[in-house]
Amino acid sequence: MTQSSQPSLAATKPADDVPVIEIRGLHKAYGSLEVLKGVDVRAMPGQVISLIGSSGSGKSTLLRCCNLLEDSQQGDILFEGEAVRWRGTGLHRQPASHAQVQRIRTNLSMVFQNFNLWSHMTVLQNVIEAPVTVLRQDRRTVEARARALLDKVGIGDKADVYPAQMSGGQQQRAAIARALCMEPRALLFDEPTSALDPELEQEVVRVIKALADEGRTMLIVTHDMRLAADVSDHVIFLHRGLIEEEGPPEMLFGAPRSERLRQFLSHSQPG
Ligand code: ADP
Ligand code: MG
């Protein structure tokens, strides 16, 4: 089945009261290692949710389950109200429809810690590649959009250079432009600033804040408590595969209730 024969999501604006991403009772194991033990997440349109927690608590796994890069054994995943259809159960559970997976995945763009730019392509080629080849959009239209996005993230002059010729902060901004060029319904960030020196981190943080201000729906895994505090509507603290505490950033950072969260925050204060 070709992409162009699928219904165009861009043509149908969903209601504001339908979550862009909804996860219900999600369980995920790698072999005998239970990584997610019944997790619920709901991202409403325009909402920014940060996922915090110690290394190994399951944050990346949760993010990767959202866009179906990982299988899960139990629980529901809904994209704009549409439930992922499964075949098989437990360790044998898999998405039933490849077309559905593709459609959902192309609507949830991911930004990775290590940028994951293609090193043999220029920045512009990186940004236009998926819209042109996966979404089969007109190259000129995509290129115009890509250049505007590169301007927007402050690297309009870097369109024709290769990733290796840029700083980490510039590469991550190129990766964000690439994610945006897919015109996704939501953005998923996995530790977007972790690989950057503090001064480069700020240029990426500024871009993420601007995206939050323009009403993008975002899920952000981060170790940067200041970023989480500044951009999120809602913060989720994961502990060993379960949500230990969640709420608005003022509550989570200002008045944490659980001892585990208090301990976690004492090791990673904002700023
Ligand atoms: P976080 O992002 O919070 O640091 P992860 O979601 O990456 O945590 O990992 C959660 C747990 O799952 C860890 O114990 C990790 O070692 C394990 N894990 C992650 N990916 C895999 C994998 N592909 N195979 C086996 N175990 C994995
Ligand atoms: Mg991780």
Describe this structure in words.
The protein is an alpha/beta fold and 271 residues long. It has one domain (19-266): P-loop containing nucleotide triphosphate hydrolases (Rossmann fold). The chain is built from 9 helices and 12 strands. The chain has helices spanning 59-66, 98-106, 123-133, 139-152, 168-181, 198-213, 225-231, 249-254, 259-267; strands spanning 21-30, 33-43, 48-52, 74-79, 82-83, 86-87, 94-95, 108-111, 186-190, 217-221, 234-239, 242-247. The strands form 3 sheets. A 6-stranded mixed sheet has the order 8-9-10-3-11-12, sandwiched between helices. Strands 2-1-4-5 form a 4-stranded antiparallel sheet, with helices on one face. α5 (168-181) runs parallel beside α6. The protein starts with 20 loop residues before the first strand and ends with a helix. The relative contact order is 0.16. The model is unreliable at 1-11 (pLDDT under 50). Bound molecules: adenosine-5'-diphosphate and magnesium ion. Residues 59-60 line the site of magnesium ion.
